[in-house]
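Bug report

Summary: structure tokens for CAZy families GT4 protein differ between web form and batch submission.
Environment: batch mode, default settings.
Steps: 1) Submit the sequence below via batch. 2) Compare with the web form result.

Sequence submitted:
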Amino acid sequence: EDALRWAHDALQRAADKAEAHCDLGHLMSRLNRHDDALRQFDLALQIDPNSARARYFGSLTRLSLGDMPAAWAGFEARLDLPGSTNGHDRHKQPRWDGAASLEGRTVLLHAEQALNDTLQFVRYAPLVAARGASVVLEVQPPFGAAVRLAR
């Protein structure tokens, strides 16, 4: 509750700053006050329509509410966050959009955030290969041997 009071105080001093609304929205989301959080993220986007933080944190709040279509639309904003370590900065090739044919192409599957990404998405390698693609897996060192054995 102290943090909430401080965030409200900060917002009163900087009501015209998208970041202040994002901070309060993020805190409200953590307190399971999702409707209040979404209002703050919407206000942030009115101030700065390009706010990656507002789009991303809003998407996380929508994910927790089960609003998958709206959540996934904003979730891509994570790629625009400063300091994002999602792997896209290491790989210059275009991302697959899910629609283009994979026949004869090479697809790199890599973890975006953590070890659990590897565990979650390595299972899709055979499905990508079944669409005619060669699959290259980039995995964290702890999983290298396990993935080689699973082939």
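Above is the batch result. After comparison, the two runs are identical; trailing whitespace caused the diff. The mean pLDDT is 86. Residues 34-47 form the longest helix (14 residues).
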